[in-house]
């Protein structure tokens, strides 16, 4: 059971104060009865709630996928930079969502956003071995020895030995390389630091898949959409 003002506020129908005003004006109906008390408690999954005669579709969680652009940070708030949450619709912001894991400010690609803490923990815990696949452009030649080093586990600058990673070379020459990297962790700047540890720099990085989901080619950078039930089920079955 939850307070009606909290339910409506969480669904993006105004602040608690604004919702209280809607209730006082008789604009909210619960199971056919006008509700005026903001403290009224209801079961939002069973009660029929109407606002101005229109039924409210209640949901506890939201699940979004974004094609993250460069220049924004994977955070809920930031004093200096625009965040991925700033890019989503206000109606979604009312659910207090957060990014699952993070992408560096200049990294683009698939980013999942939700307010489901249990799913977040499941997807970012290294013990669950959820693959994150990146396309990367490197400033130097990437050879078979580098592939083997990644497979064994790269030791990065702070002495941490990364879990084994898959490095696939798409093409490589003296001018640079294009590669695919699959990791199961999410350390700060991990892919970049892994390449720095072997004397190379990442010049472009794009996450192309997260677990069973691939980057939606129909999403322009900065755009997001809700996940389908099938996609949500795939993530929960990881």
Question: Which helices and strands, and how do they pair?
Answer:
Elements: E1 2-3, H1 4-10, H2 16-24, E2 28-30, E3 33-34, E4 41-42, E5 49-51, E6 54-55, E7 63-68, H3 90-93, E8 98-99, E9 108-114, H4 117-124, E10 132-138, H5 144-152, E11 166-173, E12 176-183, H6 190-196, E13 202-210, E14 213-214, E15 224-226, H7 229-236
Parallel strand pairs: 9-13
Antiparallel strand pairs: 1-4, 2-3, 2-5, 5-6, 7-9, 7-15, 8-9, 10-12, 10-13, 11-12, 13-14
Helix pairs in contact: 1-2
Describe the structure.
The protein is of the alpha+beta class. The protein folds into 3 domains: 54 residues, Structural Genomics Hypothetical 15.5 Kd Protein In mrcA-pckA Intergenic Region, Chain A (Roll); 86 residues, 2-Layer Sandwich (Alpha-Beta Plaits); 80 residues, Alpha-Beta Plaits. It is built from 7 helices and 15 strands. Strands 7, 8, 9, 10, 11, 12, 13, 14 and 15 form a 9-stranded mixed sheet that branches. Strands 3-2-5-6 form a 4-stranded antiparallel sheet, with no helix packed on it. Helix 1 packs across helix 2. The radius of gyration is 22 Å and the shape is elongated. The two termini are 31 Å apart. The model has no long low-confidence stretch (mean pLDDT 94).
């Amino acid at each position: 059971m939850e307070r009606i003002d909290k339910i409506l506020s969480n669904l993006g129908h105004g602040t608690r104060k604004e919702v209280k005003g809607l209730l006082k004006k008789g604009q909210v109906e619960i199971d056919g009865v006008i509700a005026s008390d903001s403290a009224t408690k209801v079961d939002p999954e069973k009660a029929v709630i109407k606002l101005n005669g229109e039924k409210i579709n209640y949901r506890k969680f939201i699940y979004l996928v974004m094609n993250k652009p460069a220049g924004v940070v994977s955070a809920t708030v930031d004093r200096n930079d625009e965040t991925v949450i700033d890019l989503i619709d206000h109606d979604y912001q009312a659910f207090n969502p957060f990014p699952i894991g993070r992408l560096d400010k200049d990294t683009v690609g698939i980013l999942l956003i939700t307010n489901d803490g249990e799913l977040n923990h499941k997807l970012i815990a290294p013990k669950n071995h959820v693959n994150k696949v990146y396309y990367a452009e490197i400033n130097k030649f990437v050879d078979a020895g580098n592939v083997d080093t990644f497979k064994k586990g790269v030791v990065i600058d702070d002495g941490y030995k990364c879990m084994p990673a898959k490095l696939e070379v798409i093409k490589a020459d003296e001018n640079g390389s294009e590669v695919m990297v699959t990791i199961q962790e999410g350390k700060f700047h991990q892919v970049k630091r892994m390449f720095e540890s072997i004397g190379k720099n990442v010049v472009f990085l794009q996450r192309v898949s997260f677990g069973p989901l691939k980057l939606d080619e129909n999403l322009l950078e900065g755009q997001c959409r809700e996940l389908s039930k099938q996609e949500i089920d795939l993530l929960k079955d990881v």
